[in-house]
Amino acid sequence: xxxxxxxxxYRICIADEYKCDAMVDYLLSIDSHLASGRIITxxxxxxxxxxxxxxxxxxxxxIKAFPSSSSVRHLLPGGGYTxxxxxxxxxxxxxxxxxxxxxxxxxxxxxxxxxxxxxFYISVYADGFSSFKEELLNIYxxxxxxxxxxxxxxxxxxxxxxMHDNGVVHHDLGNQNIFLRRKGDYDWADVLFIDLNRGRVYxxxxxxxxxxxxxxxxxxxxxxKFFIFMYCGKDIEPTELAALEGLARxxxxxxxxxxxxxxxxxxxxxxxxxxSWTLYPPVNAIMxxxxxxxxxxxxxx
Length: 301
Fold this sequence. Notes:
This protein is of the alpha+beta class. The chain contains ten helices and 14 strands. The protein has two domains: 4-124; 130-299, Transferase(Phosphotransferase) domain 1 (Transferase(Phosphotransferase), domain 1). It is globular, with a radius of gyration of 20 Å.
């Protein structure tokens, strides 16, 4: 773990390969770079692309800003765990073991007042990647080929399995948080996981934790069954994992549907912020080309 640099109200942790005075100065003015960066997402958490100083030349980085949080844990000597720090620890583990996340650069904690901390996570911008969600939409709406769908699902399943086998549970494994690079018409590789602020590192991951993580994926039941089969390989029983995943999915859906009751003001603020083009089409409306003929996606195996 690199040393924590303390400057006034800031606590900064920088990966050794990016540590230099210019980077420290850049991170001390993180708010201004957040304001001037190119916005990727804007909601509860703001994410932008910015040019940061490296040791030899500028690098494009992604800054993810987490809302300030108040907690008695922030009064402890170590400052408690902010979302940026949790993101950092899970990302470092993933990158060091399987290079399964964009290169971690730094995290910053800004003590706004006693017990209240804003935090920021910074990683190298992964150019040439697209999300699992984008690739699914491309197949659903344009390419519509069964073999491409199988290849995509198999690539992502293998990537998720490697993440779990190396001790990381994402805890927010939505399709939008999985990135990969397309190598050809039927070939995807280099699976990366982003938004790891809920991620945790474990010595060993139980089947229940694996199932709970998988339950966040947005796939129709028949595709989820195929995904689990590809994930399991030869050493996990697919039927057992599928049963646990189904229970975890039901529990998550109940939790998700009660969100407006638990967080009415936040949900009202976010209402209508999702672009229509990012929504999945109705499953019954999707047709897939299979062995020379079109079949409904619900019949895909």
